[in-house]
Amino acid sequence: LKATVIADADFVISKLDRRLFGTFVEHMGRCVYGGIYEPGHPTADANGFRQDVMALTRELGPTIVRYPGGNFLSGYDWEDGVGPKENRPIKLDLAWHSTETNEFGTNEFMVWCKEAGVQPMFAVNLGTRGPDEARHFLEYCNHPGGTYYSDLRISHGFTEPHNIKFWCLGNEMDGPWQTCAKTAHEYGRIAQETGKVMKWVDPSIELTACGSSQRLMPTYGKWEYEVLDTCFDQVDYISLHHYMRNDGNDIKEFFAEIEALDYFITEVAAIADAVAASRRSTKRIMLSLDEWNVWYKAHTPDDLKKPGWPKAPPLLEEIYNFEDALVVGGALIVMINHADRLKAGCLAQLVNVIGPIMTETGGPAWRQTIFHPIADCTRLGHGEVLRLKVDTTTFETKSQGDIPHLLTAAVRDPQTGHVAIYALNRSTEDAMELDIDLRGMGAGLALVAATELHHADLKIVNTKDNEVIKPVPNGSATVKGSRLTAQLKPQSWNVFAIE
Ligand code: AHR
């Protein structure tokens, strides 16, 4: 196969918002307990934070981390997770049929964020609760002092406000599985009033309204329109959730799930703009893909709920194989190429629960296959996303028709001139000769790194003893003058760093 690409420094889609490369920590399964937090673990620090997980988190490099849920959020009382640990109530978590000890809460998470070098993305419970708790919680987090809730935070040892800027108004409120799900009308109103009072408490915050919990929801589209039509003036973002599946064990259809994400983003932006148009408004609601990943294997009733009310049981512990890493890489390319509307993204989740990092409670931590495309993006994706002209062969799929073999994105930092190119060859049979014309980027371009993820076995997985899937150098790549050429192996994820 052959593919040619023109990348011109002057043809820019948008500046890349680095919050596109975020992740998610929910109180569920072993994400918090046994994941980021495990007092007594041989690597735990004085706060109980696992330092092996911390090191892998830093290597993964997420920019923003969503917390505390997820479905858990819709029954969560934030007050339970602050103050002296010995006074914190133990409660039933209806979302995951677990027992929540509340040993870990807002302040612990904020300390963890600082150590990990990430920004927080918080969410307020609009399932069982509403505007009153949300305004008090925000006052607790962001008000400097001199009021009941800000002084309560200070009394808990946090003199400085947390200054949390990015807030989600609830989670998946359209889903019947949600604790106190809502109709679009009910949710739109509660989001409007909650958003209003939250911005009165702190006008510097940004707010995300819940979009549909997936593109296949029967209310998809109508939900977005009605919700935004109601809370348009209060919110800045609308959320999307997209989990890609390979139920039919058909790699071509699995690859086509990436196209479904592409359509999803385009459609939600169009709906948001239709709401703006109906008001003759120039305001543009941006998109936050605040949950996305591959998730379909760990989806049995046993993965979603364990008998009884166990504490931190193993849930949704998806074991990722090589094809999952390719699909995750493809989704990242789509996200980058939508940088004009998509301003935040959270890979769900960070550790153990559909996570790029796996741990054994009391044991080691390791990288799943999907870790690598994410780390490649967080490490090298800085600057502006270029609008590429791509010529590539295509292949046929049942769900999305003909789709391109090559998916690619280029990000260039105008300050340093550094360019990162991501390229996914979706042919499972053929290698691809890639030829990229790098225009308007000056003389003396040099290839500083070329790596590939490739394996003949799409189903191979990483284990704690053997991380088979990891990037290796692609020796075929060269940059001569303004031309990058490389051979992309069949079914491969490729990264080129040029300076
Ligand atoms: O990420 C796992 C779950 O998926 C989240 O709790 C929920 O929001 C979504 O359905």
From TrEMBL:
It is an enzyme of class 3 (hydrolase). Gene3D superfamilies: Glycosidases, Golgi alpha-mannosidase II. The keyword Ribonucleoprotein does not apply. GO terms for molecular function: alpha-L-arabinofuranosidase activity. Coiled coil: none annotated. It holds the Pfam family ASD1_dom. One of its GO terms (biological process) is L-arabinose metabolic process. Its EC number is 3.2.1.55. It catalyses: Hydrolysis of terminal non-reducing alpha-L-arabinofuranoside residues in alpha-L-arabinosides. It comes from the Bacteria. SMART domains: Alpha-L-AF_C. InterPro entries: Alpha-L-AF_C (IPR010720), ASD1_cat (IPR055235), GH (IPR017853), Glyco_hydro_b (IPR013780). Residues 290-492 form the Alpha-L-arabinofuranosidase C-terminal domain. Keywords: Carbohydrate metabolism, Glycosidase, Hydrolase. Belongs to the glycosyl hydrolase 51 family. Homohexamer; trimer of dimers. This is non-reducing end alpha-L-arabinofuranosidase. The lineage of its organism: Bacteria, Pseudomonadati, Pseudomonadota, Alphaproteobacteria, Caulobacterales. The gene is abfA.
